[in-house]
Amino acid sequence: MIPSILPTYNRAPMSFVAGEGAWLIEEDGSRYLDLGAGIAVNVLGHANPELTAALAEQAGKLWHTSNLYGIPGQQELADRLVDATFADTVFFTNSGTEACELAVKMARKYWYDKGETRSEIIAFTGSFHGRSAAGIAAAGSEKMTKGFGPLLPGFTHVPFGDHEAFQAALSDQTAAVIIEPIQGEGGIIPVPDQCLKGLRDACDAVGALLIFDEVQCGVGRTGKLFAHEWSGVTPDIMMVAKGIGGGFPLGAVLATEAAAAGMTVGSHGSTYGGNPLAMAVGNAVMKIVATDDFLAEVSRKAGALRQGLEGLVASHPDIFESVRGSGLMLGLVCKVPNSDVVAAGYAAHVLTVPAADNAVRILPPLNITDDDISQAVRRLDQAASSL
Which residues contact 88 (CB under 8 A, 6 or more apart)? Predict the structure, then answer.
């Protein structure tokens, strides 16, 4: 008999009723150090007082009106994002998956309005862009697509890191290239800065749009507001979610004026996208995260955490192979099954997130304390020692 909750998740044997900073708490009071942060979502930790206050204040005023009317908080957050990034315009969604749908529509509408038939989008193996029709078609892996055909057409998949295959796929029929500056689900694999620059140059050479998926790596996680900033390269379209809402459902598509030119009245919409509650939280997140001092602290803490993880690799050479990633988006590449490491972490009351390529993701809140970083390393050491 099917359970009342559709069984699409393989859930861990814990459930939590409260949270505090980087800690999650079960009904019996057991505390777990959360190095997953809701998969890079809770950038300011659990029950952050400033986000809680912003949400409560807005909840006492107005929840929802729809986009039939102006939403002051939406204008405020759009202006913040435009001022802080390459973008000229923003559309608000409720998730990264929804952001992917719009990014694909926007890229194809751009070429349609130019009177060209371009629709092909190049994507990369190991990528993850959500679980919607466009998202799984963009990822292309059998794991994501099996049984869900026919798939949305028009995607070409290139082996990640294969420059020759990419150049062979690129043509004057390429509408766009979509890539994560750091693959998240794929195993915390950064794209080198020179490769992002090469992608920008290649897109410019044939007129294709460049789409960055910063759903997991964006909003301060690498020590810059967005990961692509380290390379000095800018996209035409960018997908954002997870951290921008700090735990509240919120996503966005950011774009240049040129890339967004085809998205006119009636071309896209969302009932809940940009609702007053989400906007209150998103503005509160940006006020905190999008500051030089906060981002500098992310980089400092990232250095301390990475040093600790490198020490674990040295102490447990039969368990761990290496550390990779950027900022507070780190991956422990394992020699034993990564699921064993995650499970051992449960016993040590530390939560991590598995990924492809036998990696364990370390994605703590960006405001994790120094004491909690030390605790994280100790508990991961305890977990590794038990294997």
Answer: 82, 255, 256, 257, 260
Angle at which helix 276-289 crosses helix 49-59, to 10 degrees, equals 150
Q: What is the CATH number of domain 56-289?
A: 3.40.640.10
Residues 204-252 have pLDDT tens digits of 999 999 999 999 999 999 999 999 999 999 999 999 999 999 999 999 9
Residues paired with 20 in a beta bridge:
23
The DSSP annotation for 311-365 comes to HHHHH-TTTEEEEEEETTEEEEEESS-HHHHHHHHHHTTEE-EEETTTEEEE---
359-384: per-residue pLDDT in tens? 999 999 999 999 999 999 999 999 99
Domains of the chain, by residue range, sit at 56-289
Is residue 34 within 8 Å of residue 353, measured between CB atoms?
A: no
Cα distance between residue 134 and residue 138, in whole Å: 6
Distance of alpha carbon 236 from alpha carbon 254, whole angstroms: 8
| Chain length of the chain | 387
CA gap 124, 183 in Å, rounded: 10
pTM value?
A: 0.97
Query: CA nearest 193: which of 143, 166, 230?
Result: 230
Helices vs strands, H then E, count in the chain: 12, 17
How would you list the strands of the sheet with 329-334, edge to edge? Answer: 320-326, 329-334, 359-362, 353-355
Contact (CB, 8 A) for 221 and 285: no
